[in-house]
Amino acid sequence: MREAVDKGHAPTRLIAPGLKGFKEFLTRGNIVDLAVAVVIGTAFTAVVTSLVKNLITPLIAAIGGQPDFSALTFTVNGSRFNYGSFVNDVVSFVIVAAVIYFLIVLPLAKASAFRKRNGSAAEPEPTPVSDDIRLLTEIRDLLASSAAATATAPAPRSPGQS
Fold it and tell me: What is this structure's pTM?
């Protein structure tokens, strides 16, 4: 084994399958889609955060008072707890969640329900039946009708029966 390591064969034999698998993993469509989603999600987060910080929070401050709670603290045994920053983050989260829900999720759900409601009202066109299926259906119906006719017809009598 030591000789193989010295010649450079063992590391290549161990690394090559790993690199091949890694390359296949990277070239699958799922990883590219995920990367695009992360980048778009990051950009969208910046937009929503700016909307909340620059429009929604000042609007709430104008209606309800000061929106900054970072000055709120309490002290226990000489340790100071700045819970105001936590309150700011919770309020910011609730505002962001409400903005996303009311400006994005709810309108998209309403639009989807509207499309479903209008789309289901129109009757779908019947799919055309191929000639093979039509002929097989006719044969089946003819066989079923001839079987029903022989079952209801009286049995023929033999010449010796009365």
Answer: 0.45
